[in-house]
Each structure stands twice: as C-alpha cells, then as structure tokens.
UniProtKB/TrEMBL annotation:
<dbReference type="InterPro" id="IPR001653">
    <property type="entry name" value="DAP_epimerase_DapF"/>
</dbReference>
<dbReference type="InterPro" id="IPR018510">
    <property type="entry name" value="DAP_epimerase_AS"/>
</dbReference>
<comment type="similarity">
    <text>Belongs to the diaminopimelate epimerase family.</text>
</comment>
<feature type="binding site">
    <location>
        <position position="11"/>
    </location>
    <ligand>
        <name>substrate</name>
    </ligand>
</feature>
<dbReference type="GO" id="GO:0005829">
    <property type="term" value="C:cytosol"/>
</dbReference>
<protein>
    <recommendedName>
        <fullName>Diaminopimelate epimerase</fullName>
        <ecNumber>5.1.1.7</ecNumber>
    </recommendedName>
</protein>
<dbReference type="Pfam" id="PF01678">
    <property type="entry name" value="DAP_epimerase"/>
</dbReference>
<feature type="site" description="Could be important to modulate the pK values of the two catalytic cysteine residues">
    <location>
        <position position="207"/>
    </location>
</feature>
<keyword id="KW-0963">Cytoplasm</keyword>
<keyword id="KW-0413">Isomerase</keyword>
<feature type="binding site">
    <location>
        <position position="189"/>
    </location>
    <ligand>
        <name>substrate</name>
    </ligand>
</feature>
<keyword id="KW-0028">Amino-acid biosynthesis</keyword>
<feature type="binding site">
    <location>
        <position position="157"/>
    </location>
    <ligand>
        <name>substrate</name>
    </ligand>
</feature>
<feature type="active site">
    <location>
        <position position="85"/>
    </location>
</feature>
<feature type="site" description="Could be important to modulate the pK values of the two catalytic cysteine residues">
    <location>
        <position position="159"/>
    </location>
</feature>
<feature type="binding site">
    <location>
        <position position="76"/>
    </location>
    <ligand>
        <name>substrate</name>
    </ligand>
</feature>
<feature type="binding site">
    <location>
        <begin position="86"/>
        <end position="87"/>
    </location>
    <ligand>
        <name>substrate</name>
    </ligand>
</feature>
Amino acid sequence: MRFAKGHGTENDFVILPDPEGELDLTKETVRLLCDRRAGIGGDGVLRVVRTRAFGETLAPAARTAERPEWFMDYRNADGSIAEMCGNGVRVFARYLLHAGLVQGDRFEVGTRDGAKKVRVEADGDITVDMGFVEVHGTSSAKLARQVVHGTQISVGNPHLACEVAGAVADVDLTEPPALDGEAFPAGANVEVYRKVAPGVLEMRVYERGSGETRSCGTGIVAAAVAASPAGEAATWRVRVLGGECTVDLDPEGARLGGPAVIVAEGETSLL
Ligand SMILES: N[C@@H](CCC[C@H](N)C(=O)O)C(=O)O
C-alpha cells in the first residue's frame, strides 16, 4: 500500500491515498501506522478518499450542496475519530497539490466538520478557513502537577484553552488531563497558553487521542480565540513546539495559516 508522510509545524500524519474508499481502516491498523517504533509514526492518519466514495454518514455540517471532491478521513493516533484537524487539513491540501489531485491555489477539502476553504499563499504556506468558532463558557482540568482553568471552545472538535501565568515550558503535560465529564462528554484537547508579546502567544497542547503533540491547528485557533476580546477582529502569531502559525479572527470566523510539507512517500506492508 502506498503512503506519504507529512507535517504542519511538526504535527505529523501518515497519509493514505484511498480514492475509491476501499480500505478497511481499523483502530488497530491506525495505532500500528502511528506507532513511532513498530510503525511509520505519526500523531494521526489522513485517509484521502473521494467524497462520493466515503461510506460513513456525513455529519450535517459536512452535507453541503457543493461537496468538495476530496474528503479528509482523520483518525487520532489511538485510532479514534475526530471531527476536525486544522493542521491535518493543511497537510491534506499540500498532499492533494503534491499528488496532482487538485489544481490552483484555492480549493475546498471535505471534513466531518463540513467543507473547509483552503488557500495557498505566495510564500507556500497553506491557510485554511476554519469557519465559525463556538465559545461555551469556562471549565477546568487537572494536569499532573496543577489545575488549570480556561475557556471551553469548539473548533468543530472540543477544546479547553487555558491561560497560564508562567512559561508554558514549565507545565507538566506528561499525564492525560482529567476533565469535567459533564462539560466534555466526548473528551477534549487541552491547551495551555501565555501572551509573550503583543499579538504573540506561546502554546502547548495535550491532544485527545494522541497525547502531547508539537502543534495542533484547532488548538492554536482555540487559544487565539480564548486570548481575544469576544467578537473582535484580531491577528495572533502562535508559537508551538514545532514552529509558528498565524490566526486571523473576525466575526465571520477564524483562518489558520502556516507551513505544511510532505517529507516522504513509499510502500508500507502494514495494511
Ligand atoms: N492535531 C489536530 C487535532 C486532531 C484531533 C484532536 N486530537 C481531537 O481528538 O479532537 C489539529 O491540528 O487540529
């Protein structure tokens, strides 16, 4: 089976081209593919499937009249399915271009959270229009050595974005955060962030289904929204362990930009 490997600010993915939706992608297979010793290694899997061949029932948000040709079937490293992956869309878009499956510098990618508009920037960065971001109040999480408080945000998938007083490097993210199960019945991604300069955040993330990763696009957007006055336009540079992304916010929604690259292609015997 052919595969590719790519990343967006070191949030890395195994990419599986499966245009006609023929692959039976089990949880076990995803775990093995993402295993950094026994497999290829990645924070998740991006299955590249034609929307018309995608067997799963699409969420209402994804059932748009004009359906994009290509659908991103995203899985976390533990095999679970997530509604949305911001860096995943950017890397998926890079793969579509790289493989000659789309042309031009503006196109759409289907996701479980609906069709996402993608734009290739003059410098090669890829920006995705994440659409409207929902803010749902506040909650807390117990980390290994501290309790953090933050804003409950949906970027298609659930987040708790928590501002911390000290450097994010000092936060212990070695254990899965304990969340309020009523606020987050399906779990959540937890971000810790701090403002380090006007318009600049630093952030780390513990992702649902993948553990601590070096970047998370939806998490970057969640932190930017949590750091901004409600409803106001703002632009943030967000520094993560794997690099930097930009978030533009306005009342219409959020746009996430940054690098996205394909680093390898080959054959795997794991499928
Ligand atoms: N890394 C992603 C988010 C992937 C999904 C997340 N772990 C979840 O379960 O919601 C991103 O770049 O947004």
